[in-house]
Amino acid sequence: MAVSDDLSRLSTRAKEAEDRASAAKTQARENLEQSITKARASAQEVSDRARSDSAAAAEKTRSWGEGVQRSWKEHLAEVRQRADERKAERNAEQAESNAEDAEDYAAWAIDFAYAAIGEAEYAVLDAVLTRQDAQAAAGAPSG
Asked: What's the rounded Cα separation, in Å, for the pair 6 and 95?
């Protein structure tokens, strides 16, 4: 699969997340909790698969890749721990504060994903240009 195809896949995934977030506003609590559980499992699966799939690329960029993965894993563990702790709390004032924290984190995650999409676009364009340069250097036709 070409890296430009991966951008299309990323766009589709972002649209799916947007649609689910909109639908969540009208879901019953039990259904919303099930959606959250599924989303969490899916995110973990994707994260695990990405780590596995990126083994070859991580070899070339080992220290950077490991640092990002470790940081991301630690970040997810902290976020999930806070989410689990929030579920246990019943105090209305604390619940309101927790809701604001959760909304702030969601906004941050969206900003992070947006930046990641921009970085992915840059990386894809750079990969295409680099491939063209390699083909030109080898005397092969570009395309």
From this structure: 39
The answer to whether 131 and 18 are in contact (CB under 8 A) is: no
pLDDT category at 94 given cuts 50, 70, 90 is confident
List Cβ neighbours of 47 (8 Å cut-off, separation of 6 or more). 72, 73, 76
Determine the pLDDT at residue 129: 82
pTM higher than 0.85 for the full model? no
pLDDT bin (cut points 50, 70, 90) of residue 2 is low
Residues 6+ apart with CB under 8 A from 80: 40
Is the pLDDT reported for residue 1 higher than 60?
no
Q: Do 124 and 4 meet the contact criterion of CB atoms below 8 Å apart?
A: yes
Residues in the chain, total: 143
User: Going by C-beta distance under 8 Å and a sequence separation of 6 or more, which residues neighbour residue 43?
Assistant: 76
